[in-house]
Amino acid sequence: MKNTKIRLGGVPEHFNLPIHLAIEEGWFKSRGIDLEWTTFKGGTGQMTKALRNDEVDACILLTEGIIADIINGNPSKIISQYVKTPLKWGVHTGAKNSLNSYDNIYNKKYGISRFGSGSHLMAIVDANSKGESIRKEQFVVIKNLEGALESLSNLETDVFYWEKYTTKPFVDSGQLKRLGQYLTPWPCFVIAATDKVLKEKPDEITRMLRTIHDRCDQFMDDPNTIKLVSETHKLKLEDVEKWFHSTEWAIHGWVSDKMVDSIIYNLKVAGIIDEHQEILELIWKRND
């Protein structure tokens, strides 16, 4: 039997190592799936665009980002949680920037990978949680982490939100200053797929999900995981140890309606989606 091709995308970060290991070890092929991986350095905003344009079948992206984009017309559904724990966002500025206090960031220029990306949405949600607001003209699109490093170094932007442990090597080297951190008030990553692939290949998507869940389960139980993540992503062992013990991957496809409702509430309060906007079906309803 010929394997079915599924195109899956995600960011080049340590969270996705279980999937890369499953590809290398032949887990997907053994279950009839030819998994084609695409790396998106631009994060969630770049992936929601790729889903809309049918450039991928599914992506692993930030929960709040895909919910906002589905509500705004992305023809996709959330098909599973991926990482159940919150994301630790580092709040950064450039080494040469005179900015030194987390409390003084709200009138500054923010580097974001794209409008609708995590670096955009979380800056707004964080500010709103502290009774502050950020104007649209304060945001500068810098595309990805490399763009942020250049922009912050040149003092074109002042503030940048990105996953704490991904940016830590640049903090350690003195290229970035970390002003603080922000913990998302919900599980950080979900898997979403296009309505097209869910209609055309529902059984294959289910097999892909079960493979991901099984490999994540093994990843969490493997005593060598911390060392492997450290070596693969060039991160300090003690940093990976802290990250690993504060991170839990999903081993089933259940998605909490309460979590979704809470995110929608926050997106409305932050003005990211309209207060009276129609909420479309967000979660894939299937028979397992």
Give an account of the 3D structure:
The chain is α/β, with parallel strands linked by helices and 288 residues long. It folds into 2 domains: 4-86 and 187-269, D-Maltodextrin-Binding Protein, domain 2 (3-Layer(aba) Sandwich), CATH 3.40.190.10; 88-183, Periplasmic binding protein-like II (D-Maltodextrin-Binding Protein, domain 2), CATH 3.40.190. Helix content is 40%, strand content 20%. It has helices at residues 17-24, 27-30, 44-52, 63-71, 118-129, 145-153, 164-172, 195-200, 202-221, 225-233, 237-244, 257-269; strands at 4-10, 33-39, 58-62, 76-83, 88-94, 110-112, 139-141, 159-163, 176-183, 189-194.
Instruction: Predict the CATH topology of the largest domain.
Output: D-Maltodextrin-Binding Protein, domain 2
- The rounded Rg comes to 19 Å
User: What is the helical fraction, as a range of percent?
Assistant: 40-55%
Mean pLDDT comes to: 95
Task: Give the topology string: H per helix, E per strand.
Answer: EHHEHEHEEEHEHEHEEHHHHH
CATH architecture of the largest domain: 3-Layer(aba) Sandwich
> What is the name of the CATH superfamily of the largest domain?
Periplasmic binding protein-like II
Gross geometry: globular
Number of domains: 2
Ends apart, CA distance between termini? 22 Å
State which percent range the strand residues make up. 15-25%
CATH class assignment of the largest domain? Alpha Beta
List keywords for this structure.
288 residues; alpha/beta; D-Maltodextrin-Binding Protein, domain 2; five-stranded mixed β-sheet; 20% strand; globular
